[in-house]
Write a structure and sequence with these properties.
Blueprint: E1 5-8, E2 11-14, E3 28-29, H1 32-40, H2 47-63, H3 70-85, H4 92-108, H5 115-145, E4 151-156, H6 171-180, E5 184-190, H7 197-208, E6 213-216, H8 221-226, E7 232-235, E8 239-241, E9 246-249, H9 252-261, E10 266-269, E11 275-276, H10 293-296, E12 297-298, E13 301-302, E14 315-318, E15 325-328, E16 331-333, H11 337-346
Parallel strand pairs: 4-5, 4-7, 5-6, 7-10, 8-11, 10-15
Antiparallel strand pairs: 1-2, 2-3, 8-9, 9-14, 12-13, 15-16
The structure holds 5-S-methyl-1-O-phosphono-5-thio-D-ribulose.
5-S-methyl-1-O-phosphono-5-thio-D-ribulose binds at residues 45-48, 91, 158, 160, 164-165, 170, 197, 235-238, 248-249, 314.
């Protein structure tokens, strides 16, 4: 399995997802500011993966802090967590992981504390978040694979695989588990303009695992559904509101509408760390607006006339009525989500 993120004594090693599939490079990010930069520029991306990267960034920042006493360390800790939290606004896993690190810091940092002991505990916590993510994805896979047909074609969007998590993947984890269980599945990966996570990343990671994958451009999905060529759609999520509205990569909503029209099941796979019960519905999920150059250029080549403005929202919200089921690491939620997600969360 590809090593998306790895803690090393020199810093955090991450596969550079901007360069895949042409170049497979694993740079090491040696301080928390560089990790924040890597999250912002999408060296590392995908909701659970940026949560793990941020947790490791917090641990690294404290380990390498030059603070002379606890009051200085507390101040620096706030600076570290604020810097990492300001990188990307939509995926709630980022804030969830930083909050978990903050809770631990608060619990263990007293005036008599030894900085090295605090740093070790924080490193341990970041590694626990990473390990738990992989275990959670395997459970998502086990629960979700039962929903997929014994044979057929599954459409996915963006990359919700090993590259977007600590390993195994959420949506792609379900597909992996189904195949491990003997199901004969083919995967269609929508290319996912503008960053091309489907064409570049999903295709790369499935192809490396010998899973049958073909790429289609985003505008082909409707026609394929109409021809009966798609049996289910499965995607990941960046934030799920209390009522089951789902924020995910831009284009997810269009697929959900098409799936409903063609009576094709539309599944969302995500750990409960993606659930944000403080947000009642999708209308208050913050949507990241990214650099227009991601739309005006492909691979560094301009494809939109110079001077023509573009839009570049990175995510959209799919209303819960389009979602057949939400597959979590504690089981599968079906409508009414407002009750069933809450129940799973307290289970
Ligand atoms: O902008 P990205 O590539 O970080 O967006 C990623 C997605 O939208 C994924 O579908 C989502 O984070 C789930 S990853 C398991």
């Amino acid at each position: 399995m590809v090593k998306t993120i790895e803690w090393t004594d020199e810093g955090v090693r991450m596969i550079d997802q901007r360069k895949l599939p042409m170049v497979e490079e694993y740079p090491v990010f040696k301080n928390y500011r560089d990790i924040a930069g890597a999250i912002r520029s999408m060296v590392v991306r995908g909701a659970p993966a940026i949560g793990v990267a941020a947790a490791m960034g917090v641990a690294l920042g404290v380990r390498d802090s030059k603070a002379g006493n606890m009051s200085e360390l507390r101040e620096e800790f706030n600076e570290i967590t604020e810097t990492l939290a300001s990188t990307r606004p939509t995926a709630v896993n980022l804030f969830w992981a930083i909050e978990r690190m903050k809770r631990l810091f608060k619990e263990i940092a007293s005036d008599a504390s030894d900085k090295r002991v605090i740093a070790d505990r924080l490193i341990h916590e970041a590694l626990a978040i990473q390990a738990e993510d992989i275990e959670g994805n395997k459970r998502i896979g086990r629960f979700g694979q039962e929903l997929l047909p014994n044979s057929g074609t599954i459409l996915t969007h963006c990359n919700a695989g090993a590259l977007a998590t600590a390993g195994y993947g959420t949506a792609l984890g379900v597909i992996r588990a189904a195949i491990e269980n003997g199901k004969q599945l083919h995967v269609l990966a929508g290319e996912t303009r503008p960053f091309l996570q489907g064409a570049r990343l999903t295709a790369w990671e499935l192809w490396k695992d010998d899973i049958d994958v073909r790429v289609i451009s985003d505008n082909m999905a409707g026609s394929f559904m109409r021809q009966g060529l798609i049996d289910a759609v499965i995607v990941g999520a960046d934030r799920i509101a209390a009522n089951g509205d789902v924020a995910n990569k831009i284009g997810t909503y269009s697929l959900a509408v098409l799936a409903k029209q063609h009576e094709i099941p539309f599944y969302v796979a995500a750990p409960l760390s993606t659930l944000d019960l403080r947000i009642p519905d999708g209308s208050s999920i913050p949507i990241e607006q990214r650099d227009p150059a991601e739309v005006t250029h492909i691979g560094g080549v301009r494809v939109v006339p110079d001077g023509v403005p573009v839009f570049n929202p990175a995510f959209d919200v799919t209303p819960n009525s389009f979602v057949t089921a939400i597959i979590t690491d504690r089981g599968v939620a079906v409508p009414p989500y407002i009750e069933n997600l809450r129940r799973l969360n307290h289970f």
